[in-house]
Amino acid sequence: MKYLDHIGIAVADLEEAIETYEKLLGAECYKRETVDQQQVETAFFRAGESKVELLGATGSDSVIAGYIAKKGEGMHHVAFEVEDIRGEMERLRGEGFSVLSEEPSRGADNKLVAFVHPKDNHGVLVELCESLD
Question: What pTM was computed for the model?
Answer without folding.
Answer: 0.91
